[in-house]
Design a protein that fits this description.
Layout: H1 17-29, E1 39-42, E2 47-49, E3 63-66, H2 69-74, E4 78-79, H3 99-108, H4 116-123, H5 127-138, H6 142-160, H7 165-171, H8 177-188, H9 192-195, E5 205-211, H10 218-227, E6 234-236, E7 240-247, E8 250-259, E9 264-270, H11 277-287, H12 294-303, H13 323-332, H14 338-352, E10 355-363, E11 366-373, H15 378-382, H16 393-406, H17 414-418, H18 425-435, H19 447-455, H20 467-478
Length: about 475
């Protein structure tokens, strides 16, 4: 079902005659490729589900469709306990809305939640206008949207982890257990203790399951990450990716194990500061590109002129952990091979990154003791002369100048990055693609992309807004 055929009505539900007919076919198919693109609410039970729910299929006259889980909850439906709508992959884009509301909904989804007035100020609009935009886009006001997102996140932690209820309340941003209980009762029509059917135990490593829409080309993602992995910070195996990362003053760790049968990843996180858990999970989803809609992307690539038989099914855009990390990798990697660049970035990490000696469960039957690292902070890079790096002095200065832009948590403008001597449009575009996770960057100046574009005459503008995937596809074709 092409994305533009889902036509929601004014309430945000997909119940026009045309849309409902096609959604009904998608629902009856239980095809996991539609997971997260819409939700099915059953009028007779008051429950809403993912289209892959294993429960007995209800009659068509008893269902209604919603584009987002929060819209179903706003209409009084509670999430299904079997298919867990809170675990569905997020829609690839908030369909039918502009850049401002897209950014607003992203900020409103962050936990711990931020004041709506502060979010409006960050967007440069009034709180009243923000309220109007959100109501028009998803049918509910910003504060209610935040409360529902927080309740769904808490529900996910209750059902999938062994964290104590107190830890879950704090992690989801509630001030007390009573607040958590009220939220679950309001939005899920049950209690936290009824949601959790297993005995609570103390858990150091948090376990969750992250879903995606198939197909997902794990071999491509695995090889992409393995080629660029930094020893001591990242590790890639046949079925998993793991890494250490900075989390405020501490180092966190995660391991994502691919599960092709369940269309997702088993995720294990070791994090001392649980207030950062939601942000960490969302970052991991972005690194593995779990929100992508492969059907929609493939349509755009074919429209650009690529032959369908040449497409790599389930292509994903593996991103860097942060904009700062992606920029450092890009600058260090200028005019050298990927292998040489990773060697220099590894030196940077081992010399300036935060180090921890730890016992890491690399395998279920073996534990490995090693020194591990997180990527260095902008302050550490900016204040060092980088003499240990084997590269031209001008490039070292470019890395330091780049780091200075990020000191004290600053987010520099693109023109400030481009103003650095030695940083050109290609480097900035690569940073946008992998660091900012922009899906619409076409690296037309890349040598391989230019060569492949001549071999396969294409119109890149017709691949918008998925031109980053066109870049990846052309890279992939060059290696075949």
């Amino acid at each position: 079902m092409p994305d533009n055929q889902f036509v929601p009505d004014e309430s945000g539900s997909g119940n026009s005659t045309l849309a409902k007919s096609m959604l009904a076919k998608a629902r009856l198919s239980r095809d996991p490729r539609f997971d997260g693109r819409f939700f099915v609410a059953v009028k007779t039970t008051g429950i809403f589900c993912r289209p892959i729910c294993p429960a007995r299929l209800p009659k068509e006259e008893n269902v209604t469709y919603f584009q987002h889980a929060t819209q179903a909850m706003a209409q009084g439906y509670r999430p299904c306990f079997r298919c867990r709508p809170d675990s569905a992959p997020r829609s690839a884009a908030w369909k039918g809305v502009g850049a401002t509301i897209n950014r607003a909904l992203s900020l409103l989804s962050v936990i711990p939640i931020e004041r709506v007035a502060d979010i409006a100020a960050r967007l440069g609009i009034s709180e009243r206008y923000l309220n109007k935009l959100v109501v028009n886009a998803v049918g509910i006001p910003p504060k209610q949207f935040q409360n529902m997102q927080r309740a769904l996140f808490a529900k996910q932690l209750i059902q999938q982890t062994h964290l104590s209820m107190t830890d879950i309340a704090i992690t989801a941003g509630y001030q007390s257990l009573r607040q958590l209980q009220r939220a679950i009762e309001q939005y899920c029509a049950t209690s936290p203790t009824q949601l959790r059917k297993k005995e609570p135990v103390q858990q150091k490593t948090i376990s969750l399951f992250l879903s995606y829409r198939p197909p997902y080309n794990w071999p491509y993602v695995r090889d992409f990450l393995a080629t660029r992995a930094i020893e001591g910070m990242e590790r890639v195996t046949q079925e998993s990716y793991e890494r250490y990362f900075s989390c405020k003053e501490n180092i966190g760790f995660f391991k994502a194990v691919h599960d092709d049968v369940r269309h997702g990843f088993k995720l294990f996180i070791d994090l001392s500061d649980l207030s950062s858990l939601h942000t960490t999970i969302e970052n991991i989803k972005q690194v593995l590109d779990l929100h992508a809609d492969p059907l929609l992307i493939e349509q755009s690539l074919v429209q650009s002129g690529l032959p369908p038989e040449k497409l790599t099914p389930g292509l994903r855009l593996p991103s860097a952990w942060s904009v700062f990390e992606s920029g450092c990798r890009a600058i260090v990697g200028q005019q050298v091979s990927v292998k040489a660049a990773i060697g220099q970035v590894t030196l940077l990490v081992h010399q300036l990154g935060k180090k921890v000696s730890t016992v890491t469960p690399y395998k279920s039957d073996k534990r490995h003791t090693s020194e591990c690292y997180s990527f260095p902070t902008p302050e550490d890079v900016a204040e060092n002369n980088l003499e240990f790096l084997r590269m031209p002095q001008a490039r070292k200065e470019a890395v330091r100048d780049f780091a200075r832009l990020f000191v004290n948590g600053n987010t520099p403008k693109h023109e400030d990055i481009l103003a650095i001597k030695g940083v050109g449009p290609w480097t900035l575009d690569y940073l946008k693609m992998r660091g900012e996770r922009n899906p619409d960057i076409y690296l037309g100046g890349d040598l391989i992309v230019r060569k492949m574009a001549q071999q396969y005459p294409i119109a890149p503008e017709k691949a918008a807004p998925w031109r980053s995937y066109l870049t990846l596809q052309l890279w992939q074709l060059s290696s075949q």
